[in-house]
Amino acid sequence: MAIEDQGGTVIAGQATEARAEAAGGRIHADVVVDGAVIARIVAAGPSVSDPGIPAAIESLAIAVGELVIETQAGVATERVLREQRAAAVAVALGTDPAELAKGRRQQRSLLSLVAPEVPGYDLASHYAAAREIGGDFFELFRLDRRGRPLGIVIADVTGKGLDAALLMAFSRPVMHSALEAARGPADALARTNRVLVQERRGTLFITALCAVLEPRSGRIRVANAGHEPPLLVPGDGGPIRAVGEPGVLLGAFASLGPPEIETVHEPGDALFFYTDGATDAVGPSGERFGDDRLHAAIEAARDGSAHDLMAAVRDSVQAFQAGAEPADDLTIVAVGRRRPARDRRARRATRSSDDPSGDGTAR
Question: DSSP letter at 332?
């Protein structure tokens, strides 16, 4: 994959190899600024026939175009704008965080920050980039198939800054398309991995989790490609436990074969997904936030909603950092299954009998 100017000169990435183009063809998407084409995103090779690739290339072209527009905001005349377009592309594709400050708004528009409605469930999420733009991404969406299951994706590019953000913008629609078309989450990761291995020309990889939740039964299947396993928070007060084990990260090897774990999301249970920006957060003393603090924050909010779980961890990480520079991007997704109304009333009655004063102190 590469970014070319109108004359075909490579601005970023690597030129497509002739043998790769011959093996599978070549596709591109124009980067448009103010109605003019200033560059194009190009991909070539066997993977271009994958249904998710055109959408990924188009998404990346839009993101780069919007970033150029924001970088050039405030330029007074069309003449100056024309003269600066070539330089704007180079700036937008550079590594200076000061020049990319306004890119955060465009990147956030690529993330599904608004969760879909899933009757009987609470969904909550939080995303914060360590730099102006980051490499984490996540998605919560209803799959277009019988029962409208919930697709869950959370991923972390192994890097920061613009290179990671571009790989994120490319990979997100590929993974979305793969999960729509695949037999299950393991198959979706395997499909995504094939595309990344064929297209990747850099040194960045992706850790990712894919999950499919059937809302009516609570059945959930999870596949892991080198990511932190999700945490199951049982509604019956049982111990918090990890679901599955990390597999091989995406883009590193041609063969992936991630294991697929199946469990049941019972009423009252919650599933907690996160990136290592939580556990790797560093305080002023240099100490890591770590797994113990993560579990303690979840434990303190386990009787609340999915939003309560998300907020408890987010606030704990922020308090621990105490203003220190974030070590990594932070993404949190919590999915809680509500108890039936009669069960909620029974739990409230039990708490009242244990705490007749009503002030939250058991006697």
Answer: E
